[in-house]
Structure formats: C-alpha cells, structure tokens
Amino acid sequence: MPFFAAESGARTRAMIAAWIKVTNRLDSLFAHSRQLRREEITNEIVELARRAGPRASRAGELASVFPWLS
Description:
This protein is mainly α and 70 residues long. It has 1 helix and no strands. The termini are far apart.
C-alpha cells in the first residue's frame, strides 16, 4: 500500500507540474497574440493616416481658398 500512495503522489505532482507548464505556455501565447494584434492595428492606423495625409492637406488648402468649407 505505501508503494501505491507514493506512486499516486508522484503522478499527482507530475500532473500539477504539467498543468502549470501548459498554463504558462498559454499565457505566453495569448500575450504574443495580443502583441501581434496591437502591431497589426498600429500598422492599419499608420496606413490610413498615410493615405489620408494628402487628402487632409488638400482639405486644408481648400478651406484657405474657400473659408465657408471649414
């Protein structure tokens, strides 16, 4: 009977260690996923701003020529 208890305890410790390892890995993967998404959003915003730049500049020029547009 003591052998069974020792084996059971070892299995329990191994399962707990595996659970902790998996949990840590999932946390790491989720953090990496959030970082990639933030970069993707930032790139989209930069691209939109780049495309809107000339339009925004032209809108400012038009407003200086036609003040009622502002």
